[in-house]
């Protein structure tokens, strides 16, 4: 999932701690593969272990960024074919 910020960065950053806590919870649930902010900081990327876009959107529904209208997510399917993630959860 690729996010795009819908608010100024200083406003997004006010919710960042809550967002990071939410992402850490995804990790504890075993559905987070990786996550991070884009550079320059116009949004972020969250790679989830989800079978469908609907499942990914359901997982992200409680994200403080979404709940506060600070970001939106675009779904992009991806299957690693090379590199460090190719054998992830195999």
Automatic annotation (TrEMBL):
Residues 9-77 form the YCII-related domain. Signal peptide: none annotated. It comes from the Bacteria. Pfam families: YCII. Belongs to the YciI family. PANTHER family: GSR2449 PROTEIN, YCII-RELATED DOMAIN-CONTAINING PROTEIN. This is Uncharacterized protein YciI. It comes from Actinoplanes digitatis.
